[in-house]
């Protein structure tokens, strides 16, 4: 939990922020914002964030994740007429360090039009069920269902040969529905296979909800920190200095030695030793000891 400043009322205290979501992400985000900042998260009605792209590919995602986040945050802020807004995006793929393991990369954007600032926080987690499998019949699916955490986590089924109108089944949470969907998609697919994918939409995926809620706490703590120079919210790590010395030979490795704290508004910055207390690098990362 982050440190609170005693005796100082935070500028966001009692404010409202917009969150454009169709997928119940407020359940993961609201508690930390309420507890840490006393900010209330409001959801605009009648919005369609799927216009900005879907995981299943019916609508292609355009632009960088940050551009999509900005558009999403604006949709919510404009609908509700709020100065503050939030948006969340996730992307899934192989884990950078272990390609056989899947990762969930979550991003959260805070927009503050009162001060003209934005803050991005991110979290990469391997606690995800992300995966897919092509099958011709239901019988080939058993080991996948366990890894996919079915039925507590939903599945999506479509023909493997490509998208066919009316044949993308989302949010499948029971065996009967799943069997039906596989039969219909496999027989419609030119190769006779159905593609079974994990449904990564937040309200269908408790593992993803958990990562979003951890990220929301990180963001709320970041926003709770005020710049020591100008008191703007969102004081936090903005950069890293590399060069952690090797514990064998003292050579400067490419590991992080200092964290640079900065403000979202003014230019004030300072570098501090790593927050995890690590002061020496393992020789495994040293170009001299382990070239
Ligand atoms: Zn060394
Ligand atoms: Zn500042």
Automatic annotation (TrEMBL):
It comes from the Bacteria. It holds the Pfam family DUF6671. Residues 73-291 form the DUF6671 domain. InterPro entries: DUF6671. This is DUF6671 family protein. It comes from Paenibacillus chartarius. The lineage of its organism: Bacteria, Bacillati, Bacillota, Bacilli, Bacillales.
């Amino acid at each position: 939990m982050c440190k609170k400043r005693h005796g100082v009322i935070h500028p966001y205290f009692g404010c409202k922020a917009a969150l454009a979501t169709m997928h119940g992400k407020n359940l993961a985000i609201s508690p930390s914002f309420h507890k840490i900042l006393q900010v209330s998260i409001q959801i605009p009605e009648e919005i369609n964030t799927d216009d900005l792209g879907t995981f299943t590919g019916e609508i292609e995602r355009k632009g960088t994740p940050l551009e999509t986040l900005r558009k999403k945050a604006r949709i919510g802020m404009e609908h509700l007429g709020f100065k503050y807004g939030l948006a969340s995006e996730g992307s899934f793929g192989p884990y950078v360090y272990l390609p056989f393991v899947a990762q969930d990369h979550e991003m959260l954007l805070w927009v503050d039009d009162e001060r003209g600032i934005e803050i991005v926080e991110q979290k990469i987690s391997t606690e995800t069920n992300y995966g897919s499998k092509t099958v011709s019949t239901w019988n080939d699916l058993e080991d996948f269902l366990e890894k996919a955490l079915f039925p507590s986590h939903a599945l999506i089924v479509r023909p493997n040969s490509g998208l066919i109108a009316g044949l993308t089944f989302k949010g499948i949470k029971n065996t009967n529905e799943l069997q039906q969907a596989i039969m219909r998609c496999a027989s419609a697919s030119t190769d006779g296979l159905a593609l079974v994918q994990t449904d990564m939409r937040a309200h269908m995926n408790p593992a993803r909800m958990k990562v979003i809620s951890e990220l929301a706490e990180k963001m709320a703590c970041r926003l709770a920190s005020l710049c020591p120079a100008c008191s703007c919210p969102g004081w936090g790590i903005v950069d890293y200095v590399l060069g952690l010395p090797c514990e064998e030979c003292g050579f400067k490795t490419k590991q992080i030695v200092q964290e640079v704290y900065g403000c979202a508004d003014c230019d004030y910055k300072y570098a501090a030793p790593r927050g995890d207390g690590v002061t020496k690098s393992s020789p495994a990362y040293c170009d001299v000891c382990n070239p």
